[in-house]
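Subject: design request, 429 residues
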């Protein structure tokens, strides 16, 4: 017997964390061996000099603490650069690929022990911070050869993972506004997720604040300085909580990251817990990524009930007005709420005349539909409905639509005349 599963990973500058979900099941996060602590595999890799033995995570840090020339860390920050491990040269991309492959092998072993049977990975979603907008294609190429079915690896922002996690929580935990304070690194990042229950599906947006002013250092020069700095930070966090909740119905707040692991924020805690629920944990993003992968393979009601309009999401519905069985209709091409790098469509259309193609565009927020007219400039005369074209739609970014039009002629009666044409359309909000 073999169980089908999906993987969700959180990948950041410091560590890799892995969660998995079987079909119909909630995600679970892998733990450290013989421990109740969540697995947070430090992003380090090392190779033993003179052999082909590799070390990963804490094992690499311990093995090469005195011989750092055999170890590489910060794999996410230096993808295009090269590094020497002993006498061998590698790119950071090659080392990241080896590290991720090790993570998947380790996950396979642990999942089979937990599930008591063989497992088959159906999809992988990776929540990456910082999100490498300028190196996304490079990162995707590095990940492409991992032992996951072709085309089933996705890279997404933490905001997307946050949405997937929160939208799968019980309805009683969802409200107008949910806050997430992330103190994984020294600098706190805050997320504000707002839901509009008056819309169907529920339109959801997430705003990210990188300038919270909350900085908790990993190390302080003395115990006295440590206590003084944290007392001041507690007051600063309390002020931020008041600012964050002012004028909003904030029903719950999540505190994530090891920066919240101690009890330094007593003053802030009173404000955080006032008339709302507060949760703490360190696996929200990996679980959210697992929810995303699960929805991709086994779609459920969540995809129908919520519409997330994140930074990378298409904010317009795009289609064509068509006639079918003598009645006017609408042919959807791209849907709002789709990540721009997943937004692709190919369809064949038969036009009455070949002068132009009229795209129907409906922005979600304004609600005011408009047309984008693509001029084809075709001179050949043909009878009506003898113009067959292949349309290919994709997105360069969340606001830039690329349309490719290919004349396919009309059987043996009319050969293709128009050369392939490409159009770029900037979408309006």
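Subject: RE: design request

Done. Sequence follows.
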């Amino acid at each position: 017997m073999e169980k089908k599963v999906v993987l969700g990973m959180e990948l950041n500058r410091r560590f890799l964390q892995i969660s998995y979900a079987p079909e119909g099941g909630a995600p679970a996060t892998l733990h450290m061996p013989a421990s109740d602590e969540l697995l947070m595999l430090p992003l380090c890799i090392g190779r033993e000099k003179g052999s082909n033995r590799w070390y990963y995570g804490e094992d690499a840090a311990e093995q090469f603490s005195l011989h750092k020339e055999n170890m590489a860390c910060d794999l996410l920050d230096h993808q295009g650069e090269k590094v020497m491990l002993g006498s061998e040269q590698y790119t950071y991309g090659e080392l990241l690929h080896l590290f991720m492959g090790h993570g998947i092998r380790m996950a396979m072993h642990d999942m089979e022990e937990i599930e008591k049977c063989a497992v088959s990975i159906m999809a992988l979603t990776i929540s990456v911070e910082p999100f490498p907008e300028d190196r996304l294609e490079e990162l995707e190429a590095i990940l492409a050869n991992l032992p996951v079915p072709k085309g089933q690896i996705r890279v997404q922002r933490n905001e997307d993972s946050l949405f997937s996690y929160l939208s799968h929580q019980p309805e009683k935990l969802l409200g107008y506004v949910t806050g997430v304070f992330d103190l994984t690194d020294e600098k706190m990042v805050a997320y504000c997720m707002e839901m509009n229950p008056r819309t169907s599906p529920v339109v959801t947006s997430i705003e990210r604040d990188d300038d919270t002013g909350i900085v908790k250092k990993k190390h302080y020069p003395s115990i006295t300085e440590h206590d003084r700095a944290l007392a001041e930070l507690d007051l600063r966090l309390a002020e931020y909580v008041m600012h964050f909740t002012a004028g909003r119905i904030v029903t719950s707040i999540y505190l994530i990251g090891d920066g919240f692991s101690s009890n330094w924020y007593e003053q802030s805690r009173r404000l955080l817990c006032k008339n709302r629920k507060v949760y703490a944990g360190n696996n929200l993003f990996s679980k959210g990524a697992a929810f995303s992968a699960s929805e991709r393979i086994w779609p459920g009601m969540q995809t129908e009930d919520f519409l997330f309009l994140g930074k990378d999401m298409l904010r317009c519905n795009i289609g064509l007005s068509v006639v079918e069985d003598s009645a006017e209709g609408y042919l959807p091409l791209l849907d709002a709420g789709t990540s721009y790098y997943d937004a692709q469509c190919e369809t064949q259309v038969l036009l009455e005349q070949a002068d132009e193609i009229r795209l129907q565009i409906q922005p979600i927020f304004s609600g005011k539909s408009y047309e984008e007219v693509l001029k084809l400039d075709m001179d050949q005369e043909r009878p009506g409905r003898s113009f067959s074209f292949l349309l290919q739609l994709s997105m360069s970014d969340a606001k830039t639509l690329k349309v490719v039009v290919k004349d396919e002629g009309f059987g043996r009666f009319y050969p293709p005349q128009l050369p392939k044409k490409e159009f770029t359309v900037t979408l309006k909000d």
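The radius of gyration is 26 Å.
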